[in-house]
């Protein structure tokens, strides 16, 4: 095909290339489409051959404790198995002291409230016991003979979880969840390996309850210790009260806190709590904080879900003793303020 030459003037020469044939362009487009089609078909065939080798597995949703004190759902395959800490076994206790009668076929969840003194565990337990299907039997291991060795501990636990332990909280044959309150300094840390094995074997779920503000806890510990001897309420010691008048009477005592050992004391409490969480990490557990429960009662719904219980409104008659600013409850407040100011525990002063 000839080129077209244009002479605009004697100094300018413009050469235009010849036009390509439309048929040639169509052939290129067709060839490109064919190549793409072959590539797509080959990729699809590889995918089909690979998928034929995959074994489809059944998936189910389970509930496990979340780090933010709640319950989260995850999907796991059936054939992977599930840890005992994730799904508690179904328990059908057979008490020796009575018959469960028509409730014999109703499963019972086992639990233990693990805490420290003056961390809100008494209040929390009364909330649980207000549920018509829960029996939490109190601080059983406060009696030394029940925790003097691991055999005593196991025998006591067996009685509780076989429904053969009777307290005012016992709902006997129709209990859907049964447990107790257990402080860290009552043999729990000393025999933690044996207790963890027992929890996992019998499907006992651990409910950890701690306080965020350890300075407030210390005030409560010292005030309660003082009242054991002072007995401010008409010559009677009460660790928990049910009226604001009684609460005001007990809170009138302002303890003097040792500012020299304060930071090391707070650190020791933190270390102990962290050890407990580490020791019982393999158990099915949930972590709660007293302040969170007070500020947001809906977190109690997470506890009921954790225990696989029907939702109910939980109530307690207990009244908080130390309310308001901490400066109103510590006699040597200025010393404590100077000691904790600009430390990792500074937030305790304002919380």
Automatic annotation (TrEMBL):
Keyword Zinc-finger: no
Database matches in InterPro entries: Nod_factor_sulfotransferase (IPR052796), P-loop_NTPase (IPR027417)
Membrane-crossing residue ranges in chain numbering: 23-43
The keyword Transmembrane helix is annotated on this UniProt entry: yes
Gene3D superfamilies in UniProt: P-loop containing nucleotide triphosphate hydrolases
Keywords: Membrane, Transmembrane, Transmembrane helix
The protein's name: Sulfotransferase
Taxonomic source organism: Dipteronia sinensis
